[in-house]
Amino acid sequence: MIRTVIKISQGVISNDGKYRKVWNVLMEIPEVILQILSLRDYMAQGLDSSLLYCYASLMALNAFIVFYHMQFRWNEAAFHHMVKDSILDAACAVFFPALILFYSFFVFQDDLKAVKIRQHFFPPRVFERKARNYVSAKELNMFSTDFESLLIRSGWDIFLKLTFSLLACLRWTRITNVLLKRERKIPRGLSLKTAGGSLATFTKEKDKSVTPLDAVGVAQQVERGDQPVEPERLLRLGLRTAVGLMFLVYGIGCIVYTVVVVQVSRASCASYPECVQYSQQWVLGESTDQCHCLAYIDRELAPADSQELTDVTQTLASLAAAGKLQTVRLVNRKINGSLPNELETCQGLRNLVLIHTGVEVFPSWTSTSFSKLEYLHIEGDSSEINLTELPSDLFNSMTSLHTIHLSYHAFLPSLPSMVGLKSLESVYFGYLDLIKDLPPMEDLQAMQVLALEGLVHVRALPDVEQYRDTLEMVFVQDSPACCSGFLSGGGCNTTFLNCCERRHSSDSSSGDSLPPTCLSMPDEDLFLPTNTTLSILSRFATNVSNFCDPAQATCPYSFAVKSIWQTEDVCAGVLYRECSSEYEGVGICFNQDMGRVKCIQSQTIIDMRKAEIEAGCSCDQVEEIWLGCA
Fold first, then answer.
1. Model confidence over 78-116: pLDDT tens digits?
2. Other C-beta atoms within 10 Å of 563: how many?
């Protein structure tokens, strides 16, 4: 029994073993399974259809080569089979990921010249500097998906990618061992080229050589004449043909299945043009009406009439019903009241951007359903319809969240706790008029950017000592923390506008001469920072444009809220048109902060647009002739 097992194993392991070719065919089975799983994974990720067709073609090519070997090259040396299979393994494990990488680079052809010019003219933190807000959302999302398909983000990715690579390594290791074994057999002084030719000649001559007649063997064969040999040979040939045809059908099926899935998925999402990326899925017998949307992006970057924003609440609910949404990006679109309940099933949501949507409430389920959220940007305007409620535990399970942007929510009473946001890198809180205290920010191990602006009641800054090694920027403007005494050992600076005196105060006789934006010492000395925190903040305080600029400060008692939505003016929604004001002079039609296009008297914006035109950016020869567009 043991000898039989050893003999069979030698027949499998040996390069010229009796069962080596059969083993090579059996090794195609796990490879085919991994290819099918990889294709399904790429489809689920929403990879571009051209890449899916390419991968399906590689799968079909592998199947066709196996069919060709079994039908027409079965008697060829097993070593040749291994080489061809290994090349195909390398194509799937190395070439195709490299193709995805290059495709991701070249597909992102959006002109970034305008963004770079804007970053030159606008100061840091200004909305217009962010490339994410202005580049093609579809191309950006496709680039991110293609690139991230190469990353290992879960245990399934480890199994799929590393197992494929392991199979390729095993085959190439076998090839290397065979080549080394052959090289050791080459006589000394004989070149590799000559030896290769001699080995080939020897093999051919061996096949054609005539061996002496074995009389005993012939006699035994004659005695066994009643046992036919031909049926056994035909059986083997029939099995090879059947298995080869199975691979042939499989190869054709790969291409047909991919084409059908792409076409069915495209038809299912045809009624939702704002779904810029969807999962390619189709199961025989299931309904093809539901769109498995991955990225819902609907933006109006230059609205002409903000009072008639398109209501997308029902569309968002319909696309969220499949539970596949990973990206939601809405700009100048309307959401009625609360987020639709259908979003609760979107457990894989990673990017949520709502700018000027009028959303008012985040339901309680968002704290658990959005546990994989990575980027959160909720921006309102200065009107009355904005966020009024966030769950107190919203961030508790968002361990992957790296960016938070909350601004222009005048009626938001409090902010959720930020404890546990271990991946948080960037925070921006701006123009939250009711916020008096910032939430605790302990254990923020990755914090890099802290930006606070227009928080008219916040008198103290967070303790930045704990993340001093990672902190790259602290931006603080238009905040009482600049003058309340927090940075000066308790001494309030009432000449700084954020700590201005309250006019016509009804409680002026109370004996307290300091405005409420100042720290009351010694009762509130616990708010004062440590010496280490002060030394860290002093590094950023030297740049006044980012830290406590008196020119950007406003008095909270004379602050008038202005809505970015104004009555329609001469711009009529046309960007960069020349406009003028009787009192302020020549201006330019511009959509500041992605608001309504209106006439703005800003020489910086005019110079910025002229620079874009000089750099070759597209322009309107009629409306922008005054800027040099010809």
1. 566 667 667 777 777 778 888 888 887 777 665 667 778
2. 13
Q: Which residue has the tokens 């190469």?
A: 150
Q: pLDDT band for position 627 (50/70/90)?
A: very high
- State the pLDDT confidence band at 511, using cuts at 50, 70 and 90: very low
What average pLDDT is seen over the chain? 79
Alpha carbon distance 335, 411 (integer Å): 17
HSE of 186, CA atoms in CB hemisphere, 13 A: 19
Give the start-to-end residue ranges of the domains of the chain. Answer: 2-107+152-186+231-268, 578-627
- Residue 133 makes CB contacts below 8 A (sequence gap 6+) with 127, 331, 355, 594
Beta bridge partners, 11, equal: none
Identify whether the C-beta of residue 610 lies closer than 8 Å to the C-beta of residue 630.
Answer: no
Residue 388 · residue 338 · CB < 8 Å: no
Q: What is the pTM of this model?
A: 0.79
Instruction: Report the relative pairing of strands 327-331 and 293-299 from DSSP bridges.
Output: parallel
Dist CA 370 CA 392 (whole Å)? 14
pLDDT digits (tens, 9 = 90+) for 263-310: 999 999 999 999 999 998 887 767 778 899 999 999 887 777 555 788
CB 39 within 8 A of CB 56: yes
Q: How far apart are CA 396 and CA 331, in angstroms?
A: 27
- Tokens matching residue 557: 């008692």
- Which residues are registered as beta bridge partners of 452? 429, 476
Closest C-alpha among 43, 35, 94, 22 to residue 62: 35
Is the N-terminal amide bond of 522 cis, ω within 30° of 0?
Answer: yes
DSSP state, residue 95: I
CA distance 45 to 153: 13
Q: Is 427 helix (H, G, I), strand (E, B) or coil?
A: strand
Mean pLDDT of 229-233: 61
Which value, in Å, is the radius of gyration of the alpha carbons in the chain? 35
Of the candidates 630, 584, 547, 620, the one whose C-alpha atom is nearest the C-alpha of residue 302 is: 620
Q: Give the CA distances from residue 543 to residues 427, 473, 475, in Å, rounded to whole numbers and listed in that order.
A: 19, 10, 9
Q: Which helix (H) or strand (E) holds 610?
A: helix 603-614
DSSP string, 541-556: HT-TTTB--GGG---T
Is 422 strand, coil or helix? coil
Mean pLDDT of 205-218: 45
